Amino acid sequence: MKKLSIFIALIISIIFLTGCWDYSEIEDLAIVAGMAIDIDANGSYIINVEIVDIKPTTTGIDLAPIIIETRGETVFEALRNIISTSLKRIRWSHASYVVVSKEVAEQGLSSLLDWIARHPEARLTLHILISRENTAKEVILKEKEFSKIRALEFEKFVDSSEYLSKFPHVEVYELINKIENKDNYPILPTTNLININNEVYSQMEGSAYFIKDKLAGFFDPMETMKYLLIVNKLKKGVLVIPMNEENNDKVSLDILKNNTKIDIDFKDENVLITVKTNTVVSIAEVRDGRNYSNIKGRKLLQEHAEAYLENEIKTFIQNVQEDPGIDVFSFGDKIKKNHPKIWKDIEDNWDSIFKELNVKIISNIQIRNSEHIKRPISVNNQK
Questions:
Q1: DSSP 3-state of 208
Q2: Quick check: 132 and 218 in contact, CB under 8 A?
Q3: pLDDT of res. 144
Q4: Is 178 left (phi over 0), alpha (psi -120 to 50) or beta?
C-alpha cells in the first residue's frame, strides 16, 4: 500500500531535482488512489473514484484529492464511464484501496475481483475494506471539505495492523485464492466512521467473513484478534488478564510475538484438533498493586493468563461452530493438505463434522521483564 506515497515522493523529487518532466504531462495525469463502491435500489453500481490531482506551481507541485462519481450496470461499465468524466489519462497502477459497502458485499465481490484480475494496471496487492455501517462513499468523504488524500490515511491503518491485531491484513491475490478454494472462507477488514466531540474519524477494526464471494457476517475487534491468533497471523497486540472473579484487578500484557500450531489426529474415526499457542509477552500495566516480577508473582500471572487465553479461544471456536457454523479457521484445509486420503472420506460431511469438533486448546505464555521497573508503583496515601 506504500506504492502511492512512494510514487508521489518520486514525482516531487523528479521535478525538484531534475526538472525533466513537462508540466503539461503532469497536468494530464489522473492518478487513481482508490475507490468506493455502492449499489442503488435498482441494482446499479455507484463508484466514487479518488484521484490525486497534480497541479504544477512555480515552486513545485500541489497535490489535492478529487472525487469522480460514475454509475453503471456492471463494475466495468461504471469505471469505463470515468473516461467521459475526466479528460485526463487515468492511471490505475497506484490504486491502493477499495471500500465496498455492506450491500455490495452481500451481493458478491466476483464482478469487482474479475475486473481487478483482468485490468493490466490494477495491482493484486490492493486492499479491499468492507464498510460495516456507512455507505462506501461516506467513508471516503468523511469530511465536509474533502482535502486529505484518503489513500494515505488507509495506508497508515494497514501499516498499524501488525501492532493492533484488530483487523486482518489481506491483499486481493489472497482473497482470490481463498474464494477459489471451496474449503476456505475469506476474511476481510471492516471500516466505519465514528464521531468524537463532533469530529468524524475513520476507524478500521473488526472483520467480515465470506462464504465464497458473498458477505456472511462480521467479527468484532476482539473476535478478530482471537481469529488471527488461531490462524497464526497475530504478531502484536494486548491481552488484558482478569486476576480475580470480580474482574476488577487486571494486568495488561503486551504481545511481543506469537506462534500458533494446529495438530490434527484421528481416533475411532473422530477428528481430533489441538490448537497450541506460544506467546511471548511483557507486563505493560498492573492495576492490582501486586508484584509480578518475582518468581511467585510471575508464575501466578502466567497461570491466570494461560487459563484466560485457553478459555477465550475455546469459547470463540464454540461460538463459531454454532453460528455461522463454517470452518473459517481452515481446519479442513489442513486435513486436506496433510491427510488427503482421510479428507476424501470426510470431505462431503465436513460441515457437519466441523460443528461437532471438540477442539483442545493449549496455551503457553512466556513473560519477559518489563523495561524500567521490577515492581509495581506504590502510592502513599498518608498525609
A1: strand
A2: yes
A3: 43
A4: alpha
Task: Enter the pTM of the model.
Answer: 0.88
Instruction: Catalogue all structural domains in the chain, each as residue range(s) with its CATH number.
Output: 1-219 (no CATH), 233-372 (3.30.300.210)
Strands 29-39 and 89-91: parallel
Sign of the C-alpha dihedral computed for residues 343, 345, 351 and 355 taken in this order: negative
- CA–CA separation, 172 vs 163, rounded Å? 21
Q: What residues pair up with 237 in beta bridges, in sequence order?
A: 255
Contact 344, 337 (CB under 8 A): no
The side-by-side arrangement of strands in the sheet containing 250-267 is 237-242, 250-267, 270-286, 359-368
Quickly list DSSP for 292-342: -SSHHHHHHHHHHHHHHHHHHHHHHHHHHHHTT-S-TT-HHHHHHHH-HHH
pLDDT tens for each residue of 58-103: 666 677 788 999 999 999 999 888 877 766 778 898 888 999 999 9
